[in-house]
From TrEMBL:
<dbReference type="Pfam" id="PF09240">
    <property type="entry name" value="IL6Ra-bind"/>
</dbReference>
<dbReference type="GO" id="GO:0004896">
    <property type="term" value="F:cytokine receptor activity"/>
</dbReference>
<protein>
    <submittedName>
        <fullName>CSF2R factor</fullName>
    </submittedName>
</protein>
<keyword id="KW-0732">Signal</keyword>
<feature type="domain" description="Type I cytokine receptor cytokine-binding">
    <location>
        <begin position="13"/>
        <end position="106"/>
    </location>
</feature>
<dbReference type="InterPro" id="IPR036116">
    <property type="entry name" value="FN3_sf"/>
</dbReference>
<keyword id="KW-1133">Transmembrane helix</keyword>
<dbReference type="InterPro" id="IPR003532">
    <property type="entry name" value="Short_hematopoietin_rcpt_2_CS"/>
</dbReference>
<keyword id="KW-0812">Transmembrane</keyword>
<keyword id="KW-0675">Receptor</keyword>
<dbReference type="GO" id="GO:0009897">
    <property type="term" value="C:external side of plasma membrane"/>
</dbReference>
<keyword id="KW-0472">Membrane</keyword>
<keyword id="KW-0325">Glycoprotein</keyword>
<dbReference type="InterPro" id="IPR013783">
    <property type="entry name" value="Ig-like_fold"/>
</dbReference>
<dbReference type="InterPro" id="IPR015321">
    <property type="entry name" value="TypeI_recpt_CBD"/>
</dbReference>
Amino acid sequence: PVFAGMNGSAIENFSCVIYNIFLMNCTWQAGRDAPADTQYFLYWQESREDNQKECELYIKDENFRNTGCIFQNVSIGSEKAYFLVNGSSKDSLIQFYDEYIDLYKIEKLMPPSNITVNCDVIKNDCMIQWQRPQINHSNKDKCFKYEINIKYK
């Protein structure tokens, strides 16, 4: 059966974020009814054409159980990425968890850089300029909206 394994043994609260342009951090919690010796393993696939890759740098909890992963050199493509977390235990079968994620939706953007402000007291106006932050995905010009909050002292 597709959902073979002990109920409540699959991971919970799976989430990923891409930061610093090419790093991805994924975390999860052990299933609430998983046996104490359960160990989890994360695999992901950027697109259908790519091979599935296992995490190379696991984050471990106080019981040395894998509860997260850091991936390097991540690139965001146009397809949803596939994530699979399965587990193993000596005591019982562990249910797997899988999810498709649009990577561009989980990218945490850096703030704008090289911000300059030039004010003309006579004209009573200011020119504010900045450089768009680097991003990983391809829709670079469609993603940015800025809000400027000016406070007077």
